[in-house]
């Protein structure tokens, strides 16, 4: 009797050579994100990052997130579902960094480093490289280093061509400079900072409206959007690192609180930085909502209350500042490339 044929890991669905090839590409992508605090290259068992000097009581700040169903367009949560449909994979990495880093920024922290987790049923090196290219770009925008991550090839766990993506950001802030909303007081100004579109939340509802209720495909061009459906949905989430750095430099202690407007919209996120017993009165007519939200509301139709608690509606970040510092804050935000106004 002939001896049984040897079975390999590749035949079981895991390609070690593909994984090694992707790691080499990741090393090249991560190198330009390196900061002076980074002490080791990507590829070791652990990433090393020193705390920056000049801090008396440094506090580490962490944030973790995914990208929802955006991935079928490109690859982040339900946003991931959009990525799979369009084959565009080089923007959802920016979303991933944004969702983690923007949370870290809200307490006044400076982002230090980022780690990612990429899981798929069968590793496509080119797709993996495109995703990490976006992550590296997001890290550049945030001023933090991509110091490591994990790539998992899990046969049978994901449909062909699909993957999952998660990230982890760490920042640092001086203990005395932590923003926690406790100093927010009656009479403070609430400043909205523009989003780039849906960012990374509300994609299940957005896809339901666009694909099922309106009968649109990702490749269909919508004149009101000025783009295809897929392009509009894949617009990367804004990373507010430069903006918040400029705001804090210009206004200092006059900045009382920062809120990242994600799932739950303004009603679900602004109260998270308000002390108990204090509310906020907003003028939602103080700005024009981006076209994508108008298309979605009409196309559903979607009731106003549902729009407000699902989408950011054009406001990606809120800064609460002393009333007398409002103009200075808006000027600083504008100088960093952001559109801002009093809500």
UniProtKB/TrEMBL annotation:
Transmembrane ranges, per UniProt, are: none
Pinpoint the PurM-like N-terminal domain residues. 60-173
Q: Which reaction does it catalyse?
A: 2-formamido-N(1)-(5-O-phospho-beta-D-ribosyl)acetamidine + ATP = 5-amino-1-(5-phospho-beta-D-ribosyl)imidazole + ADP + phosphate + H(+)
Record GO terms (molecular function): ATP binding; phosphoribosylamine-glycine ligase activity; phosphoribosylformylglycinamidine cyclo-ligase activity
Give residue ranges for domain PurM-like C-terminal.
186-342
Principal location: cytoplasm
Any one cellular component term from GO for this entry?
cytosol
Keyword list (alphabetical) reads: ATP-binding, Cytoplasm, Ligase, Nucleotide-binding, Purine biosynthesis
Q: Which InterPro entries match?
A: PurM-like_C_dom, PurM-like_C_sf, PurM-like_N, PurM-like_N_sf, PurM_cligase
Q: Which domain of life is it from?
A: Bacteria
**Protein's pathway:** Purine metabolism; IMP biosynthesis via de novo pathway; 5-amino-1-(5-phospho-D-ribosyl)imidazole from N(2)-formyl-N(1)-(5-phospho-D-ribosyl)glycinamide: step 2/2
A single Gene Ontology biological process assigned to it is:
adenine biosynthetic process
> Which Gene3D superfamilies does the record associate with it?
PurM-like C-terminal domain (3.90.650.10), PurM-like, N-terminal domain (3.30.1330.10)
Query: What's a Pfam family this protein contains?
Result: AIRS_C
Q: Subcellular localization, per the record?
A: Cytoplasm
Record EC number? 6.3.3.1
To which protein family does this belong?
Belongs to the AIR synthase family.
What the entry lists under HAMAP family is as follows: AIRS
What protein name is recorded for this chain? Phosphoribosylformylglycinamidine cyclo-ligase
């Amino acid at each position: 009797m002939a001896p049984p044929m040897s079975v390999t890991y590749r035949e079981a669905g895991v390609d070690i050579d593909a994984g090694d090839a992707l790691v080499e590409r990741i090393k090249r992508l991560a190198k330009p994100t390196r900061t002076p605090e980074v002490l080791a290259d990507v590829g070791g068992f652990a990433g090393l990052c020193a705390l920056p000097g000049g801090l008396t009581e440094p506090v580490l700040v962490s944030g973790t997130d995914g990208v929802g169903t955006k991935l079928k367009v490109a690859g982040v949560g339900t946003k991931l579902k959009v990525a799979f449909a369009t084959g565009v994979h080089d923007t959802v990495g920016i979303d991933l960094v944004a969702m983690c880093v923007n949370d870290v920024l809200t307490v006044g922290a400076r982002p230090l480093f980022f780690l990612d987790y990429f899981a798929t049923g069968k590793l496509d090196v080119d797709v993996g490289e495109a995703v990490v290219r976006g992550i590296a770009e997001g890290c550049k925008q945030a001023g933090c280093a991509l110091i490591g991550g994990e790539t998992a090839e899990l046969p049978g766990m994901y449909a062909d061509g699909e993957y999952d993506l998660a990230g982890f950001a760490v920042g640092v802030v001086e203990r005395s400079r932590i923003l926690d909303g406790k100093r927010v007081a009656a009479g403070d100004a609430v400043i909205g900072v523009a989003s780039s579109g849906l960012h990374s939340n509300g994609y299940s509802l957005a896809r339901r409206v666009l694909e099922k209720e309106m009968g649109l495909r990702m490749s269909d061009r919508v004149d009101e959007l000025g783009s295809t459906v897929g392009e509009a949905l894949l617009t990367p989430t804004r990373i507010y690192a430069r903006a918040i750095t400029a705001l804090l430099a210009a206004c200092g202690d006059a900045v009382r609180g920062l809120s990242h407007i994600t799932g739950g919209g303004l009603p679900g996120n602004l109260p998270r930085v308000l002390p108990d017993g204090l509310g906020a009165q907003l003028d939602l007519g103080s700005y024009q909502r981006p076209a994508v939200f108008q298309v979605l509301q009409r196309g559903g139709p979607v009731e106003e209350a549902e729009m407000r608690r699902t989408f950011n509606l054009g406001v990606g970040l809120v800064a609460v500042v002393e009333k007398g510092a409002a103009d200075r804050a808006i000027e600083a935000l504008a100088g960093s490339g952001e559109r801002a106004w009093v809500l």
